[in-house]
Write a structure and sequence with these properties.
With about 350 residues, this protein is mostly helical. The chain folds into two domains: about 30-100, Dna Ligase, domain 1 (2-Layer Sandwich), CATH 3.30.1490; about 120-305, no CATH class. The protein is built from twelve helices and six strands.
Length: about 350
């Protein structure tokens, strides 16, 4: 009996020592890395888990132990309370203070602008991401659209960090500067033997962005479209007509709710607009959206093929054709149209 009692007591003592040691270690690791008032800019990328954020904090020497950070956010149930963006932290902050800071609004917020949007759609993405109220959003929208009026196609789609109170001038400058940088770096190898002007490349790239669904098909479709132009064929692109239809609608329409890419009817193809590539041959007068780098590269470096036509079936798969008869057969087979 005494042996059992002694064993139990010994076990409890060991448990108490271990727990006490763990608590002491945990509290120590929760403390600040250093005692300094220096501020540190820390960026939380979009989509990072609490565990990944802990690793980033550790690499920046803002916490002592990423495991302790992970355990703490789980303990206080704040794994989903860590925001993305730029934060101002300090190495004198404890883990609990850092977690609280990351749960508040960051100094700068991530804004993701997808490929293929019009300038009107881009500004709404920015307004929503920055959480602007109605008064500020109305002013921001009007100023940005005024600044970008002649810059459709040159507002580069990417993920940016902007302060919540950023000016439309700064956003416009950042988007256009990024376009210049990406265009110069990304098309450097294609421009020596390029047959097209910069504006022609951007216009064609904007069409490819709306017309294609996969990276591998962009150069092929670019080859088809350039070949149509060279042979005095109309491009017959639905997306350019969609752009024309949207431009013809009253500007008093609610821009926040507007559908800029309406499904076309046969009567829409008769609209008298230079963007109507069913009626007017050649490229439209300006880009119809803001393309990404892959579309710009495909427009500058098209792939030759025997194809003249293409369609996408409902599953997104592209189907090419060499003749109008083959194309008509593809339309019947994949779209059920006669």
């Amino acid at each position: 009996m005494k042996k059992i009692y002694f064993a139990v007591v010994s076990f409890l003592v060991i448990v108490i020592v271990l727990v006490s040691s763990f608590i002491y270690w945990f509290k120590k690791e929760m403390g600040p890395v250093a005692y300094t008032s220096e501020k540190v800019s820390f960026i939380v990328p979009e989509g990072k888990s609490a565990s990944q954020v802990g690793e980033l904090l550790f690499k920046e020497n803002l916490i002592k132990n990423p495991l302790v950070f992970k355990l703490y956010v789980r303990l206080v149930n704040k794994t989903k309370n860590i925001n993305s963006g730029e934060f101002e932290l300090s190495r004198s902050m404890s883990v609990s203070e850092i977690v609280n800071a990351l749960g508040k609004g960051p100094r700068e917020l991530w804004v993701t602008i997808p490929e293929g949007l019009r300038k009107e759609e881009i500004v709404e993405k920015i307004i929503k991401a920055l959480g602007m109220d109605k008064e500020n959003s109305d002013k921001f929208r009007n100023e940005f659209l005024s600044l970008s009026n002649e810059s459709e196609g040159y507002l580069f789609p990417d993920t940016y960090l902007f302060p919540a109170d950023v000016s439309p001038q700064l956003v416009f400058a950042k988007l256009t500067l990024t376009f210049d940088e990406k265009y110069t770096q990304g098309l450097e190898g294609f421009m020596k033997n390029a047959k097209f002007t910069k504006n022609e490349i951007v216009i064609m790239a904007s069409i490819l962005e709306r017309e294609t669904k996969g990276m591998e098909e962009k150069p092929v479709v670019a080859g088809i479209l350039w070949k149509r132009i060279e042979n005095d064929w109309p491009l017959q692109i639905d997306a350019t007509v969609q752009y024309a239809i949207a431009n013809s609608q009253p500007t008093t329409n609610n821009l926040q709710q507007k559908d800029w890419w309406l499904i076309l009817s046969l009567s829409d193809l008769n609209i008298d607009s230079t963007y109507n590539t069913y009626k007017y041959k050649g490229l439209p007068p300006a880009p119809i959206c803001n393309p990404g780098l892959a579309s710009l590269q495909a427009a500058a470096n098209p792939q030759s093929s025997e194809y003249w036509f293409y369609i996408h079936s409902d599953d997104g798969q592209i189907h090419y054709a060499k003749t109008s008869e083959e194309h008509a057969a593809n339309v019947r087979k994949y779209l059920g149209k006669y």
